Amino acid sequence: MRPDLTELPSAKSLADQILYHLTHTQGRGPEFATVFDWRLAVSYTIRDLIVTPWMAGHRASRDQKLKRVYYLSMEFLIGRILEDAIINLELEPQMEEALSTLGLDEHEILDDEPDAALGNGGLGRLAACFMESLSSLGVPAFGYGIRYEHGLFRQRFEGGQQVEAPEDWLNQPHPWEFVRIDYSYTIGFKGHVETVDGQSTWLPGESVIARAYDTPVIGWQGNWANTLRLWGAQPTNLFDLHRFNAGDYAAAAEPEALARTLSRVLYPDDTTDQGKELRLKQEYFLTSAALQDIIRRFVAEHGENLAHLPDKVAIQLNDTHPAIAGPELIRLLMDEHGLSFPEALDLSRRTLNYTNHTLLPEALERWSTWLMGQVLPRHLQIIQMIDDDHRASTHRPAHVAIVQHDEVRMGELAFIMAGKVNGVSALHTDLVRSTVFADLHKLHPDRIVNETNGVTPRRWLRLANPPLARLLDQTIGTGWTGDLDQLDGLKAHAADAAFLEALRDAKRQNKESLSNGLLADLGVKADPDALFDVQVKRMHEYKRQLLNILETIALWHRIHASPNGDWVPRLKIFGGKAAPGYWIAKTVIHLINDVARTINDDPVTSKYLKIAYPPNYNVSMAEKLIPAADLSEQISTAGKEASGTGNMKFTMNGALTIGTLDGANVEIRDLVGPENFFLFGLTAEEAAQEKARPGHARLAIEKSEDMQVALQLIAEGRFGRPEHYYALLDRTWNDDPFLVASDFDDYFACQRRVDAAYKDSRDWDRMSTLNIASSGFFSSDRTIRGYMKDIWKVG
Ligand SMILES: *Cc1c(COP(=O)(O)O)cnc(C)c1O
């Protein structure tokens, strides 16, 4: 039975299709079906509707010989797929009706889907938003990534401390993907290079097969779908029959186990470099498979003349993780397709582009030349050739070399091999020009461009916030979903009492859902009238969750001192994971949980102050927390957060921001207006100066009574065993690299301004309206249009 593809299916036909798939694909009758069976039947029903535009788009791109965009990323933090697909196909009402005629609970079915957590945080989520926007804009594109069997670890708390458990989303059938056994590529490692008559050939000592698994990504209104192609590793020989016949079963399976390791786990590191051989192999595995696939498709569509590659192919490298693409593309063009080095270099540079995501020195990837020479001997030679060419053609100073102190510097490699290099917010791009790549910028003044990040309004507004989406539809029409600038129309309603009332009501519904769901499950009794103050993001020192929890302690102490004061009730919500080996971040998690236990049980203060830290923050949890937030905490040390995208999601959902002048906060504040944004803290420039001042932390703490009290209470053991926190306290007094102390008093005072503002609920709602109304710029559709025009030259 085939779905009718010419028009949107009715509820009746959806219900028929669901029953069809339940029976014929799942092999279950309705009387025996589990929630899982039903979810798969619903997913296959929706997938059928995506396949038609998907194939049509492929045909059109091929027949019209369109230029394609290729987005290479080690991470795609997708989250759940089903509801997003239903929304983009505009099938919500029909699906709701279909499920209710089948006697099914829609929420139960949607909640059954595991998150595809193939990323750590912002960088991976950006890649997922970009894939959705590329499809919504009808740009022919592929995303290339790795099909990790285990995504980002699951976080639990034991005694308040983070415990990591493996994530196992592929432990059950994944209904969205299509395996392509005909698109398989051999990926080599190690071995040696033979050169005969100037022609070099790499003879790898090991190899694995990269196999393609395709997931269609449907765009808004269902007109176009692109492919997310994830590579799974397969052994070149399934198993060793000789060993098997000799009875050594474990050894016989070894080649398979070794190969599969490559796509086994996502590295749980966030922004710090993991100098591990396996990680380098994973990066090369993704990159080589993607480039081989791109060249195969180019030749199939445009013939053997690779000189036209840059006219038909634009490749974007999401951070330096796939930066081995430079030497790999040169190797393929030179060693496998017979081009000269200068030709290969020129074509590669006109095809590749690189997005920088961080200025933190510890996060800039470097590989020892020893390891690079072991794992990728031919690439090390080519890197040397690229470096020599760059020196000869630019007379660059020695400290700009790619290879330095026996290390290959992937940032320099990516920059030198890119047509365009972009930063991800206005401030970040300025800092890229003036700090990390200052010398390269002088040599190549037109190469660095800015593309401020964005998020997709389909998932982060329409899907995540139905009460607000309904209100927007009623107030300004439905066009905002595909054209977020239309939110500007809300400005006319910022003084309209009925609208402000309705906005308050929408926020209240989200706060109640959160209180009765997630927070109740956690055992936190939340008052939906309290100010919901939310900081959710990876746990990192520069993001300064420590500043937030110290302010909480100081506030708690003040409430104790005058329990009959006019305090504004607050619920502080934290969420986020720490990299497993990052002790400071883990200590801060422990501290937050210890403080929560003490404060939440305090009968004197608990009507004013509570803390909730739900474990395992992920995309699905973000979809629940962000729409319920009144206040968005974006408090990183200025100059450290490249852009942030969480900050944009909150603004779109009507939360006001308390934040520093960092990353895209700067642009948010400019757009919503300084009077509708709670600003505090040092600027990036001031922060750099303050850090250079000897004893800055101690000097600042000695001036701040509130901060002294907070640190003292921890040291006294008021929240748990103080010895857990001695190292953290010592670091705060004596080092404080991210200037928690220097910004403390300003932050504390700013929070009191937030309290005062929240008491005037009408004015708060007006400010919230202006935040939503000004957030159109932060649609990832706008970001993608920027890349198309400035970098990819498509469309
Ligand atoms: C948006 C998002 C992030 C990025 O948040 P920042 O505050 O920008 O660091 C991280 N994780 C998840 C699950 C997200 O949805």
Automatic annotation (TrEMBL):
EC number in record: 2.4.1.1
GO molecular function: 1,4-alpha-oligoglucan phosphorylase activity
Keyword check for Transferase: yes
Enzyme class, spelled out: transferase
Catalytic activity as recorded in UniProt: [(1->4)-alpha-D-glucosyl](n) + phosphate = [(1->4)-alpha-D-glucosyl](n-1) + alpha-D-glucose 1-phosphate
Cofactor(s) for this UniProt protein: pyridoxal 5'-phosphate
InterPro entries, alphabetized: Glycg_phsphrylas (IPR011833), Glyco_trans_35 (IPR000811), Pyridoxal_P_attach_site (IPR035090)
Listed transmembrane segments: none
Key word Transferase present: yes
Keyword vocabulary terms for this entry: Carbohydrate metabolism, Glycosyltransferase, Pyridoxal phosphate, Transferase
Record family assignment: Belongs to the glycogen phosphorylase family.
Function, as annotated: Phosphorylase is an important allosteric enzyme in carbohydrate metabolism. Enzymes from different sources differ in their regulatory mechanisms and in their natural substrates. However, all known phosphorylases share catalytic and structural properties.
Record protein name field: Alpha-1,4 glucan phosphorylase
